[in-house]
Amino acid sequence: MDPPEVPKMLTKRSSICVLGYLSFERRLYIVSQIPAIRKVEKSSPLHLDAFLIGFNGIRLNEHKYYSSDETIELQKKLAKNPYNINSLGPPAFDTNPIHGKFQKVIDDLIGHRPMIFTKKLELYDLSLWKQRDSKPYRLPVDLKIQAEMLDARWCYYNYGDLNRISKILGPKPLKEVLLQLDNYHIFQHPVVRNSEKLVLYCNNVRFDAQRINHRNIHLDGNYRFMDYLNEWIRNQNEVGMEFSGDVGFHRKAHLEFMWKEKPLKEMMYWKKCESGGRRVKADERFPNTLYSISLPRTNNPNTELQYSLLRNPRGYEFDKYPFQIHVKIQPSGTAIPERFDSMYLESKIWETQKQIRTFCINSCNWALNLPRRLQSALYQFYPWILFVLVSGILGYFLISWILAGLCGRKCLPFL
């Protein structure tokens, strides 16, 4: 009988290949059980879903690592140290040993790696890092992060801050950058200018598209987006440029109101009719499209503007902004036209529903003033009266739809 075959161990190169496909949590567990492969694990790039760099720590996916000067025993309050308001204490970084230990944790996690790949890199307020005495840790000198999205919206940055951030970023351009609109100088930085999409949080700062040289801009949660959209459309934009934003809550002058789906669709429909546009198929990138049209551009007849109404994919987070509007400049004839635009009939149905609702309310008020015998007779024949009314309305719209299909006209003013 042959002896049992001894399983072969993976070579160093094979181990690196295998570890590269494992999650951060699994790799951390394997290294804790087999410390001998720590160097092998370090030589393989790390792949993360989210990487957060904050003032007092970092977060890798869902795991937080942060430093704290507090030591609290169970069911006991922390005793306060005596202090003198007339004297300054020693610098925390030089005296508190927890910082040195935490620095080793940071180096073990993200130090001495060829590259860290992450889908999202978040940066919190790093302004306190400039104060040497308050630094709880330092990033590794050789740290390189190849991120798809850079989320730096939690504080305001200047051009010098972006220079420091660019030193830890990988060579590939970012797919998306999220920033606060504080000053227009930072938008000339290569990190921002070379990104595929720029998401801006304007707050109360006025947005000026002519001062931002970017081909794809999104305004997040700005109540004046519709005004900025009209300004952007009037500019001399190049083919391929895109502009989008959240739509819902709107404020103009001293009035506040909420955009609804029906008025937005009707507004786009009448824009299409007035400019001689057409309804087109939705952009394949946006499966959440509710309505899409193509409008010719008067200042450049060789291009068209695709104007799309989208349902906000983050609607559960943005109750005030349930929709998005996206526009794109493209060569004429790029958008695929729809055979029939039912928007006019839909608007008529909405109008008829409103009229029926008003009629029912008025009828109820009128019926209450009738004699009781007449009220009983009306209630007895109410289903038949309602059936006749609904049949007439449906017949009216069926004939209108047939005529619209035969005539092939974009608008039917005789309806």
Label this structure with key terms:
415 residues; alpha/beta; 3 domains; 13-stranded mixed sheet; two-stranded antiparallel sheet; 12 helices; disordered C terminus
Description:
With 415 residues, the protein is an alpha/beta fold. It has three domains: 18-66 and 94-201, no CATH class; 235-339, no CATH class; 348-407, no CATH class. The protein has helices at residues 12-20, 24-33, 38-42, 92-95, 98-110, 159-166, 190-193, 225-234, 261-275, 343-367, 372-380, 382-407; strands at 46-53, 57-60, 63-66, 116-123, 145-152, 176-180, 197-201, 216-219, 242-247, 249-252, 255-258, 278-279, 289-296, 303-311, 323-331. Strands 3-2-1-4-5-6-7-8-9-15-14-13-12 form a 13-stranded mixed sheet, covered by helices on one side. A two-stranded antiparallel sheet has the order 10-11. Helix 9 packs across helix 10 (343-367). The model is unreliable at 71-79, 90-98 and 409-415 (pLDDT under 50).
Radius of gyration: 31 Å
Estimated share of beta-strand residues: 15-25%
Helix tally? 12
- Detail the poorly predicted runs: 71-79, 90-98, 409-415
Provide the residue-averaged pLDDT. 78
Sheet/helix structural class: alpha/beta
Tell me about the largest β-sheet.
Answer: 13 strands, mixed
Order of helices and strands: HHHEEEHHEEHEHEEHEEEHEEEEHHH
Terminal Cα span: 93 Å
Overall number of domains:
3
Strand order of the largest sheet: 3-2-1-4-5-6-7-8-9-15-14-13-12
Number of extended strands: 15
As a percent range, the share of helical residues equals: 25-40%
Form type: elongated
Keywords: Membrane, Transmembrane, Transmembrane helix
InterPro entries: DUF3557
